[in-house]
Amino acid sequence: EITLDGEPIGRKNIARLSFATSEHSFFPALSPEGHADFYARHFPKFDRKRFDVLMDFFELPLRGEPAKFSTGQKNQFEVVLALSQGADYILMDEPFSGNDVFNREDFYKVLLGILGPEETVLLSTHLIEEVEDFIGRALLIHKGQLMGDVHMSGLEETGEGLVDYVKRNYNYRADRIKRAISELSGED
Predict the structure, then answer these.
(1) Residue 78 and residue 20 in contact, taking contact as beta carbons nearer than 8 Å
(2) What's the chain's Rg over C-alpha atoms?
(3) Full pLDDT tens readout for the chain, 188 residues
(4) Closest by CA position to 66, among listed 94, 31, 25
(5) Residue 163 backbone dihedrals phi, psi, to 5 degrees
(6) What GO MF terms are annotated (predicted)?
(7) Counting CB atoms within 10 angstroms of each CB, which of 5, 74, 104, 105 has the fewest?
(8) How far apart are CA 137 and CA 153, in angstroms?
(9) Chain centroid to CA 168
(10) What is the pLDDT of residue 30?
């Protein structure tokens, strides 16, 4: 059973969750302006100022159909909606795919600057080198199984980086590259 702070998720607490996915949950034919109006009516803590500032930051138009945005713009718009909803828990599934390294880096800085103490971001990503400096905790899931759970402060104490922690917990074999090249080149 999935709960939110010990309570079953239902109508009374669902607005405490927001979700940004690279598969896009927005209404494709509704303009961003229309989304803002919809969110303002349905989510009591919707932050219109945050919405407008993030739309401007990402240089996204308020008019037009999000379905016609590029992949990166769609992901940015999804993140704007999730961060503006006013939720306590913001779930993001690969929110930065389709964005270049500069956009991602700028977004991380903005994210850290706008989150309030009552907001928690749960982020799934393969870009671990990019996020290890600002996350507080990492859960490693592989093929549906929890493979690791570490607080970043604990890693700092040991001197191990997140990438090395992931490699160790996933039983990464560093020799596999050399072996593959050797097999392909016919060398032993």
Answers:
(1) yes
(2) 20
(3) 789 999 999 999 999 999 998 888 888 889 999 999 999 999 999 999 999 999 999 999 999 899 999 988 998 999 999 999 999 999 999 888 778 888 888 888 888 899 999 999 999 888 888 888 888 999 998 888 898 999 999 999 999 999 999 998 888 888 888 889 999 988 76
(4) 31
(5) -60, -45
(6) ATP binding
(7) 5
(8) 8
(9) 24
(10) 93
Packing angle of the helix pair 48-57, 32-42 (nearest 10 deg) = 160
The CATH code that applies to domain 3-135 is: 3.40.50.300
Joined together, the tokens standing for residue 156 give 């700092």
What is the chain written as a DSSP string?
--EETTEE-STTTGGGEEEEETT--S-TTS-HHHHHHHHHHH-TT--HHHHHHHHHHTT--SSS-GGGS-HHHHHHHHHHHHHHS--SEEEEESTTTT--HHHHHHHHHHHHHH--TT-EEEEE-S-HHHHTTT-SEEEEEETTEEEEEEEHHHHHHHT--HHHHHHHHTT--THHHHHHHHHHHT--
**d(C-alpha 169, C-alpha 42), whole Å:** 42
Write down the pTM of the prediction: 0.84
| Cα torsion 62, 80, 16, 112: sign | negative
List where CATH 3.40.50.300 sits in the chain: 3-135
